[in-house]
């Protein structure tokens, strides 16, 4: 009796931002819908954990250094046994997970593209010369400068609402955010326009939500299995293989996107596009691949190796943001 009760309890760890909570509520609801043994009231609880990335808001992300700024404290809680699973934006998950933690589940990917949010102008191209764009992302900043070298890119940190407030106060003329985040917050109407993939390549894993658990936790694996979206997992793994080869993070100016030729066929053909860009936007190296999904990891890795060779040493120096 005791063990039966114990086994039907699941503690989910998450950051406390409105976006993190929205994603966690979605995972909780899907878990309960897929697993009748989690249906008892109180069976699933949510534990909010503050990470280093949440705590330090006055410095640009690229200066904080190190990886796992948004995950380390959550991983520690999982290894200590105070939570059982954790919900993450895949974009913020380092390529190497700590020993004992695995990532068996990704939800179906949201829109991968970036949104442009302008105070007085609907599109990047409409901004008057010398306008100021705020972003925390070196990748977005660099791609903006590549298109519009006249624009001044400044550092914009904080959660989605904080950035919208900064924009409203006039700290910048425009900002950019992942559409996925806006959609999950029910704030899609805040976007003035959408940048297409060939104008602005998204970050690796943008728009994907992943769930981690302890490697040996068979109950958690069983509960999570029905939630995994194989096509998303496949594409994100290809992108992460590319990122691993480049030794990059969400804070380096790297873009990468894998897409299946037919989403309903996760064993079919996959297309990949990768890019590294100097922070000032003046040097860009790009590559594309097409291959079988079964060879996806090698494909992503190979694309990374090509760009690494093209860039040469010293390419990824932390820039101005
Ligand atoms: N680095 C912060 C972060 N991590 C995930 C998202 C958005 C949601 C997503 O990409 O899945 C954001 C904010 C943003 O880029 O606008």
What is the fold's blueprint, element by element?
Blueprint: H1 2-7, E1 10-14, H2 18-34, E2 44-48, H3 52-55, H4 61-64, H5 72-80, E3 85-89, E4 101-106, E5 114-118, E6 132-135, H6 138-147, E7 152-155, H7 160-168, E8 174-178, H8 179-184, E9 193-195, E10 209-214, H9 218-224, H10 230-246, E11 254-260, E12 269-277, E13 284-292, H11 296-311
Parallel strand pairs: 1-2, 1-3, 6-7, 6-8
Antiparallel strand pairs: 3-10, 4-10, 5-8, 5-9, 11-12, 12-13
Could you tell me the number of beta strands?
13
Distance between the termini: 56 Å
Low-confidence stretches: 1-5
Radius of gyration: 20 Å
Question: What share of the residues does DSSP label as strand, in percent?
Answer: 15-25%
Number of domains: 3
Biggest sheet character:
5 strands, mixed
CATH architecture identity of the largest domain: 3-Layer(aba) Sandwich
The unique ligands bound to this protein are: ligand PBG
Return the CATH topology of the largest domain: D-Maltodextrin-Binding Protein, domain 2
Short key terms for the protein model shown above:
about 325 residues; alpha/beta; D-Maltodextrin-Binding Protein, domain 2; 5-stranded mixed beta sheet; 13 strands; about 35% helix; globular; disordered N terminus; binds the ligand NCc1[nH]cc(CCC(=O)O)c1CC(=O)O; porphyrin biosynthesis; Porphobilin_deaminase_cofac_BS; HemC; hydroxymethylbilane synthase activity; chlorophyll biosynthesis
């Amino acid at each position: 009796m005791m063990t039966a009760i114990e086994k039907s309890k699941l503690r989910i760890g998450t950051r406390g931002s409105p976006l993190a909570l929205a994603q966690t509520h979605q995972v909780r609801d899907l878990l309960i819908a897929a697993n009748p043994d989690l249906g008892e009231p109180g069976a699933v609880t949510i534990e909010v954990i503050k990470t280093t990335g949440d705590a330090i808001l006055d410095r640009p992300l690229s200066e904080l250094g190190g990886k796992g700024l948004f995950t380390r404290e959550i991983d520690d809680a999982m290894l200590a046994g105070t939570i059982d699973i954790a919900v993450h934006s895949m974009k913020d998950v380092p390529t190497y997970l700590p020993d004992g933690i695995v990532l068996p589940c990704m939800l179906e990917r949201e829109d991968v593209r970036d949104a442009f949010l302008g105070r007085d102008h609907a599109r990047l191209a409409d901004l008057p010369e010398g306008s100021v764009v705020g972003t925390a992302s070196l990748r977005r900043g660099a791609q903006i400068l590549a298109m519009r070298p006249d624009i001044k890119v400044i550092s914009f940190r904080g959660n989605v609402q904080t950035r919208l407030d900064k924009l409203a106060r006039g700290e910048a003329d425009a900002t950019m955010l992942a559409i996925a985040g806006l959609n999950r917050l029910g704030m899609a109407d805040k976007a003035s326009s959408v940048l297409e993939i060939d104008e602005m390549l998204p970050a690796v894993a943008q728009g994907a939500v992943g769930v981690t658990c302890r490697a040996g936790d068979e109950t958690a694996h069983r509960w999570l299995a029905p939630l995994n979206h194989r096509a998303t997992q496949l594409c994100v793994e290809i992108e992460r293989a590319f990122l691993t080869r480049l030794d990059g993070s969400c804070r380096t100016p790297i873009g990468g996107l894998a897409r299946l030729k037919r989403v309903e066929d996760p064993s079919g053909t996959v297309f990949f596009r990768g890019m590294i860009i100097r922070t000032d936007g003046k040097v860009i190296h790009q590559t594309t691949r097409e291959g079988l999904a079964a060879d996806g990891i090698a494909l992503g890795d190979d694309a990374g190796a090509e760009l690494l060779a093209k860039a040469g040493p010293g390419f990824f120096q932390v820039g101005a943001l």
